[in-house]
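hey m, so remember when u said the tokens were messed up on ur end? i reran from scratch. heres the input so u can diff it against urs
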Amino acid sequence: MDVRELWDSRFTQGLPSLESPDPFFIEMYELYISKSYPSGGTVLDLAAGQGRHSLFLAERQWKSTAVDISAVAIEKLKEAAGSLNVHTLIMDVADYDLSPGSFDLIILYYHFDRQLFPKIFNALKPGGLFICKLAFTNIPKENSPLQKEELLTLVSYFDIISHEERPVKDRGVVEYLGKK
């Protein structure tokens, strides 16, 4: 089974934990994002899944682009979006053209690719925000997932607004908001 089939299968079965906006996202929206962009802006939601964050923002006048490899997830997002301003693309995030200076906000939740971070920085407008939540491991290995405290080196060109790393079950989670 390839990656696309895997995610289509998962979204077909349902992922209730990925249907509501993440608490860290809501907190950062209320404390920082809404204050920086009180009238909304342009947002890119990478590996958007069913678009929980895109929908939240579109309801608040944001123009959203949601990218995900799963056709099932994107179809569910389209259905939920109705007439909201959400543009959807079914594709691998690595293949998406991150044009320079295109977005006010970029969201990346639970999709890790070290090559994305410089592209994300360049795709943000000056003063743009980047929010992410990723899993990390404490077991170093070649071509491994994100390591504890590694994210800060990958986003060193951003100004940190919020950063926390904490244990969750048998791994850890890093939550981050930065400004270009």
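this time it looks ok to me. The longest helix spans residues 23-36. if urs says something different then somethings off w ur setup not the seq
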